[in-house]
Amino acid sequence: MNGKFDVVWNAMISGYVQSGFIADALALFREMVSNGIPLDEFTYTSVLSACVNGGLFGLSKSVHAHAIRAGPNFSSYSALPVNNILITMYSKSGKVELARKLFDDMPLKDHVSWNAMLSGYVDAKLIDDALALFHGMSCMNQMAWMVMTSGFVNNGRAEEALALFNMMRGKGFEPCGFTYAGVMAGCADLGSLTAGMQLHAQVTRYGYESSNSAGNALLTMYAKCGVVEDAHQVFVTMCNLDSVSWNAMISAFGQHGYGLDAINLFNEMLLEGIYPDRITFLTILSACTHCGLVDEGYHYFNYMERHYGITPGEDHYARLIDLLCRAGRISEAQNLIQSMPFEPTSIIWEALLAGSRVNGDVDLALEVADRLFKAVPHLDGTYILLSNIYSSEGRYVEAANVRKLMRDRGVKKEPGCSWIEVSNNVHSFLADDMGHPEIDMVCRVLDLINAKITKLGYKPNTKLVLHAMEERDKEYVLSRHSERLAIGFGLLKLPVKAPIRVLKNLRICGDCHAAIMVMSRAFGREIIVRDVKRFHHFKDGECSCGNYW
DNA sequence: GTAGGGTTAG
């Protein structure tokens, strides 16, 4: 066996790994071993990479052991790539501290080592450790900035991602398409349309046509900031639509309540010869749910398996159950749960519980809540929903008991928070929150708004207030919900005809929904609310969800 | 010929 020969083996293995043929790569490695072909650092690096890519961490340990036992004596230089992949191996198998130990002990490190360690921290959600490492990096490159910015975004720290992105530009680093994708996802999280549009201008100069990631993220940013038309504009101008682009656009239509557009786009996707995946069906089922298209939902649910061999997962079932419940077809939903090929878990029960609320079915709600209390005792949503169901039936004592149970178990309700962007600043409000510097003015505006919408026929739905208190106090509580504060602020600050875009971390409350419909008529304003589930476009006294959400 | 990355759904 001469030297040239093992080069060919190595090339074959790395070719397999790069094409995703993990098993073939490993088979070839075994053949090399049994034929006595000399193994070098390239062999081990490729094979270890195959194990890590395939999630075969146990095997990667044996390969590593083999390298130590039977491999060549690595110099610190030739050990470098092997150690680099081992950093990734340790972090991907959840052992970041071992990765760090190896990293610290390495006699020689290069930019790959630093970036691998950085990604390790980011994947483990140890963002502060990642940041500390990042600031200590001696060999900073574009990839490190990208990992750090998207790390912030994926851990709910989008503001810091945007700040880091600006710092990156200030230091003269040119962002790649992936980096743009990451920060644009951050703008989408924040609902910061202004920042998103500035990035759009930058990425146009850069040419997002060449990067599907940037284009897809741009599209999603517009959709999540409430401007579905601009999202569609991006969609039609992109040169290479991939399945992510189609999924994103279908999802955008669905979230905004345009179920039929979503379905039409899905059909167009099929005509273009793009293969739908499980996410496509998830988005199309969501689109049906948001519009109450029960028959269509059923159809797609059956269609995905029959025509595309995609077995519906728990998430697909949960969507269909949600859809059936909202349409009042509770018993069908229960039958569907019975027929599932796996045991129902909490997401299935959550869908059924939400459905029993829509239909005011207290007995069912109790039964389902009981299962959820056992399965996920710390999920705040169960307590809130159950308490809501009792309150709306006027059973305040039982509602209070549920909340006591919640307190006793130390479960905290996520506080409602709404935010709005005004002249490039994001202003956030909590319910009944006096923290904002201009809150007095906002409250006076809300009183005026209330007087006006009451004249136009708005009646507060005090059933939606959880606490037992005087009727007038309940009305007051409703009028100070976070979404109302944000809208009041918007009416006060934004130009006269400008649409008001508000974001909320929870679902919009039924009373606020009714109030905002009247507001949109009273002030001739378009009001767009993104809640945790979907968008509501209020215009001329109506909402795009058609009171169905 | 080697090692490190992103976008959709929730």
Automatic annotation (TrEMBL):
Single annotated GO MF: RNA binding
SUPFAM superfamilies in UniProt: TPR-like (SSF48452)
Intervals holding PPR repeats: 5-39, 110-140, 141-175, 242-276
Coiled-coil regions listed in the entry: none
Protein name as annotated: Pentatricopeptide repeat-containing protein
Family annotation (NCBIfam families): PPR (TIGR00756)
GO biological process: RNA modification
DYW domain: residues covered: 457-549
Keywords for the protein's UniProt record, in alphabetical order: Repeat, Transit peptide
PROSITE patterns in the record: PPR
Xref: InterPro entries: DYW_dom, E_motif, PPR_At4g14850-like_plant, PPR_rpt, TPR-like_helical_dom_sf
Claim: Repeat is one of the keywords in the record: yes
Entries under Pfam families matching the protein: DYW_deaminase (PF14432), E_motif (PF20431), PPR (PF01535), PPR_2 (PF13041)
